[in-house]
Inverse folding.
């Protein structure tokens, strides 16, 4: 399906931004304008089930939710990116689930550079027995106070945005990821020149997997003391870490 998008800027170079689970294109509220100021036309997507991209009408016979053929089967995210975004863009950025989706689509999108922010290539971030369905449980009980307490470095605008995005997120997305729990999904190679930015510490890209990614052709950098949503936790540190890539 073609995804809902949000844009900033009108430069000749194109940058695309892909958000993580439970979020949508609004998470890039500072990143989009910052890249536009650097001469990019920036396109941020809402992944299926997030923001303005709801596939129930687009997929009249999607299979059972959570199955390999369901409307939220992991490969669908990559297919949507390939259908929505132009190939050969200057820069592609994917955060968390968006990093998984981008890695699945990168052969078709062929960006000149790819940046993965604490990508979800390891589906046991909380240890053995982790169930992605817990995301839905969190979304149902989230309050502004809870979100702010969990993310003390966020600006109030980020807390407000998180509540808005949770309100429109389809909880069925979480159940569809349950079959991935405990699996390692690291790409075998860097299709394009690729940077992985990790949180400090990162549950998704621990040291041994960072070393493996380097051996597979990825550059890996860490944003000191940043949490999983690096671009909201430490925007200045995030932009500094992109030096040489934007």
């Amino acid at each position: 399906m073609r995804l809902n998008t949000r844009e900033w800027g009108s430069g000749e170079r194109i940058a695309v931004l892909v958000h993580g689970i439970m979020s949508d294109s609004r998470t890039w509220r500072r990143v989009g304008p910052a890249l536009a100021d650097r001469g990019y036309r920036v396109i941020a997507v809402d992944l299926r089930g997030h923001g303005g991209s709801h596939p129930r009408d687009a997929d009249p016979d999607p299979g059972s939710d959570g199955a390999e053929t369901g409307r939220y089967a992991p490969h669908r995210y990559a297919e949507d990116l390939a259908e929505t975004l132009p190939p050969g863009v200057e820069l592609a950025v994917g955060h968390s689930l968006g990093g998984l989706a981008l890695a699945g689509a990168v052969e078709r999108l062929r960006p000149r550079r790819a940046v993965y922010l604490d990508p979800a290539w390891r589906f046991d971030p909380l240890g053995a027995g982790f169930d992605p369905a817990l995301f839905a449980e969190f979304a149902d009980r989230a309050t502004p106070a809870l979100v702010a307490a969990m993310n003390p470095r966020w600006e109030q605008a980020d807390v407000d945005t998180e509540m808005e995005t949770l309100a429109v997120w389809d909880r069925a997305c979480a159940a569809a990821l349950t079959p991935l729990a405990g699996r390692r999904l690291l790409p075998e190679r860097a299709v394009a020149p690729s940077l992985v930015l990790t949180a400090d510490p990162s549950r998704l890209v621990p040291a041994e997997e960072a070393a493996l990614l380097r051996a597979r052709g990825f550059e890996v950098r860490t944003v000191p003391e940043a949490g999983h949503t690096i671009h909201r936790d430490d925007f200045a540190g995030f932009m500094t870490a992109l030096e040489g890539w934007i």
In short: Strands lie at 5-8, 13-18, 40-45, 91-95, 114-117, 194-198, 219-222. The first helix runs from residue 31 to 37. The chain has one domain: 5-241.
